[in-house]
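This section describes the prediction task in plain terms. A model, or a person checking by hand, is given the sequence of a single protein chain and must write out its three-dimensional structure as a string of tokens. No templates, partner chains or ligands are provided. The sample shown here is typical of the held-out split.
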Amino acid sequence: MLRVKMLFLLGFWWGVTWAAFAQSQEAPIKTFGYFQNSFQQWTESSDHAQFNTFALQQLNMMLQKDLLKDWTAFVNFEILNNFSSSKRWGSFNIEEAWVRYHSSRQFNLKVGLQIPIFNYLNDIKNRTPLLPYIVRPLVYETSYNEFIATEEYLPARAFVQAYGFIPSGKAKFEYALYIGNSPNINSQIDNQSSGNERPTGVDTTTAFLLGSRIGVRYGELKAGISATHEKVNYFKGLAERLNEPPSKFEGLPRIRLGADLLYRFGDFSFEGEYISVFYDEGAEVVEVDKRFLYGTLGWNTTERLYVYASYWFTREHQVEIVDDQFIKFIVDVDVITGGVSYNFSDRIVLKGQIAYTDITATPYPEALEGYAFEVYALAISIFF
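The expected answer:
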């Protein structure tokens, strides 16, 4: 009799478990995304002729499915710059593919490919209808990643992240801790040049990306600081030129430090960020540190119309090798920009933007002279 009861209880437990699992499998896959089509006109400068172009600037297609009560899966595909594989235009990337365990507001755990939390804008940079910009602050403008090293300034990928909110009176404290691969990723070019029998897209070292952010929310104020640490092999090519052993330039640290501030006061708002990137280059003749900041003042003139003015500044230390001599110089990029964003509906946003860009180098190397140009842009952003 006891055996029969045990079998009955086991069967009942299995039936309930299977029903719950089957019900979770029946949960629909949520499909949504964002895209932004733009028209841009760039005026003439000493670096390029005047041109204008239409473009599918960015498209993000997202899939989300609730697996169990506290488990959610998420996938994010990103297309840039009129992507066409046959014509070799733009790029197509899998930006995210993760599963999240939600224990409470105080603790969440994401496992899988994901965009890590770093400063305010990194978390929402692909949500184009939520942003007033057509051209985003430069290190966030992924459509420019063919000539701006955006991943130098921002961590683009992590694989394990814990984060949450801790309430304390009227304030909320935020935290995020994450780990991912180092930047030393095997590519098809590396395989061809070295004959490696390793799959592409994998880390070739035992190093990790380690990162964190801590922040606070209090009323209409949101602020935080971020940091990452990783080791790079970017400077191994210096070994032969400097008659040094290659091991001296392996696993050198790169540190990012960031700070962000967002404050709303009535119909007005201010947001700004600062990022510094520090390298240990392994030799005093080389310096490639970087710095970026932006600040935006905005005004909701009506419920649907938002007007803003913004300033962006980028400083990059660079090196040229001329006749075996290392020439160090600094490149500054100043951008003064302003625009409007009109919410035609909850899913359609119309935008306009004007930007003045001034690029200077100190001292001027022969390969680079200062120049300036303007960008005029119109766009429509869609949430679907």
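For orientation: The CA atoms of residues 176 and 249 lie 31 Å apart.
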